[in-house]
């Protein structure tokens, strides 16, 4: 079945069973990256539990477990390419859910025993929960403007004071379609809640997302093979990855690469801010440096790119093109570079330049309408929707591209999409609402357990965080050279080796 047929099948036939073919679905995910489960050299096992783990209609735990196990397979394949032992990969589905959504619990990731602060969004009217706001024509929109710049532009568009009451009243003066279009033109995050049936008729779906791979790997140009040496301690020893990432999905790719031994440097602009819970979750393992858009700093960026194997990003739509950092340009100057991008609605189409987060993908694709109704949408009982999962899919693609480059050479572009991943989540099956509510927490298999944790000393203080929850037979993951570095604290330079 194609994606449209799978979505119609899933939405039209709610499930009242917890049975799930993990092996079959893992095979489909890995096939997108040219891999198989056997590439780990051993056995992949999913243990511990099954969805529903929370009172939600979607297989959040299964999606997280598939993506985590998939990157475990990809890392194991590189490990064997470099002379390492075959690996068994084991994933407890209950812990996979925690790793996926645990940052929102506010208790697994701590510094000096304290949870992250919400200082950047304190009293932000655009993050009031639930996220839905009613429009003049009786529809619901999600105006999720969580960063200071987005918040300012949204208030200017709505022409209202900075309060929840004023924002809600201003939105109620607009029809949903008009507000969504005006927001897109202003670079503001607003999405109309749609049913899945409505979304399948949108041009962004029919022209782009319907045929977009879950993990899109494209060879941009030829170059000499870049084999990875043997005799290393971790799968990505000697690999350098440069990031322009924030929020969750893009930064999660950097954390992943660092967890397997890469030297990962994330670049911020000096005026950037980040939500602390996101930073403590996904910036783990990466060094952090400031570069602005001045000519001297652009030269520094180019020197970093010249030494990089991977360049990953999830900046706002159009930013890479504005800065001359698209893959077609970079591969001319830096042959062999692998560029990994996290996109919202895909690389083309009428919504290509719309900004947003995974909740926007959930709003437009039908997830929120299916959790409730189109008239009264509901959020699942946790956040995020797919954010971390998207990053892990991006990691699978990046690792697969590194293997291809080692064998055949080439420059590669890897793309993953938040909305496309929402559609994949839906295609895994939609639970009957009563079944999900009754099953969640009813047995040990349907009850969440605490994640595995680690503690490290960092410049910020004593950090407690979640491990990746993956279990390998012998491969070590998470021996970070850097655990949690303050934003901008590091020099914009690669580590010296030897």
From TrEMBL:
GO terms for molecular function: catalytic activity. It comes from the Bacteria. InterPro entries: CoA-trans_III_biosynth/detox, CoA-Trfase_fam_III, CoA-Trfase_III_dom_1_sf. This is Carnitine dehydratase. It comes from Streptomyces bauhiniae. The lineage of its organism: Bacteria, Bacillati, Actinomycetota, Actinomycetes, Kitasatosporales.
């Amino acid at each position: 079945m194609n994606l449209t047929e799978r979505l119609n099948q899933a939405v039209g036939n709610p499930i009242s069973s917890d049975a799930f073919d993990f092996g079959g679905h893992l095979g489909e995910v890995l096939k997108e990256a040219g891999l198989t489960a056997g590439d780990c050299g051993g056995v992949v096992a999913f243990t511990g539990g099954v969805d529903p783990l929370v009172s939600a209609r979607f297989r959040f735990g299964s999606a997280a477990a598939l993506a985590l196990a998939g990157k475990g397979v990809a890392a194991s394949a590189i490990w064997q390419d470099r002379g390492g032992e075959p690996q068994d990969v084991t994933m407890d589905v209950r812990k996979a859910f925690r790793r996926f959504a645990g940052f929102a619990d506010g208790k697994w990731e701590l510094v000096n025993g304290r949870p992250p602060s919400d200082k950047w969004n304190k009293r932000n009217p655009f993050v009031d929960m639930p996220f839905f706001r009613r429009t003049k024509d009786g529809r619901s929109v999600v105006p999720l403007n969580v960063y200071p710049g987005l918040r300012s532009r949204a208030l200017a568009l709505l022409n209202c004071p900075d309060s929840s009451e004023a924002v809600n009243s201003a939105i109620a003066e607009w029809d949903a379609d008009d507000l969504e279009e005006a927001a897109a033109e202003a670079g503001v995050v607003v999405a109309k809640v749609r049913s899945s049936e409505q979304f399948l008729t949108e041009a962004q779906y029919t022209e782009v997302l319907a045929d977009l791979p879950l993990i899109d790997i494209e060879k941009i140009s030829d170059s000499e093979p870049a084999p990875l040496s043997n005799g290393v301690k971790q799968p990505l020893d000697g690999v350098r990855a440069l990031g322009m990432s924030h929020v969750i999905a893009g930064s999660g790719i950097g954390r992943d690469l660092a967890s397997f031994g890469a030297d990962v440097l994330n670049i911020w602009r000096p005026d950037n801010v980040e939500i602390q819970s996101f930073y403590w979750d996904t910036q783990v393992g990466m060094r952090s440096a400031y570069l602005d858009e001045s000519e001297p700093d652009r030269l520094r960026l180019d020197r970093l790119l010249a030494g990089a194997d991977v360049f990953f990003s999830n900046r706002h739509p159009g930013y890479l093109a504005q800065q001359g950092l698209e893959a077609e340009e970079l591969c001319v100057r830096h042959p062999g570079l692998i560029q990994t991008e996290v996109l919202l609605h895909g690389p083309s189409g009428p919504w290509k330049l719309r900004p947003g987060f995974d909740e926007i993908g959930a709003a437009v694709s039908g997830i929120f309408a299916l959790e409730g109704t189109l008239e009264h949408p509901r959020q699942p009982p946790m956040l995020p929707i797919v954010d971390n999962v998207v990053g892990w899919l991006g990691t699978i693609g990046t690792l697969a591209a590194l293997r291809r480059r080692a064998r055949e050479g080439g420059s590669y572009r890897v793309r993953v999409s938040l909305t496309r991943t929402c559609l994949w989540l839906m295609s895994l099956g939609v639970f009957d609402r009563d079944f999900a509510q009754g099953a969640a927490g009813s047995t040990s298999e349907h009850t969440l357990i605490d994640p595995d944790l680690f503690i490290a000393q960092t410049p910020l203080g004593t950090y407690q965080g979640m491990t990746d929850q993956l279990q390998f037979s012998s491969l070590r993951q998470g021996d970070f050279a850097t655990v949690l570095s303050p934003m901008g604290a590091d020099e914009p330079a690669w580590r010296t080796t030897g």
